[in-house]
Amino acid sequence: MSSSDASRLSVTRIDVAAGRELDFADWVTAFEAILIRKNYGRADTIRDEAEPHRFYAVRHWNSAVAAQQCHGDPEVQTLAAALHRIARVTHLVNGVHRADAVNAAVVDRRGGAGSDRRAGFDRRQNRATNPPGAERRRGTERRLGPRRARERTAPGDLIAAARRARESASAEFSKFKVGAALESTDGSVITGCNVENATYGLTVCAERVAMFKAISEGHRAFTRIAVVADTAAPTPPCGACRQILWEFGGDLEVQLANLTEHKGTHRLKDLLPLPFDARLL
Question: CATH second-level architecture of 8-93?
Answer without folding.
Answer: 2-Layer Sandwich (3.30)
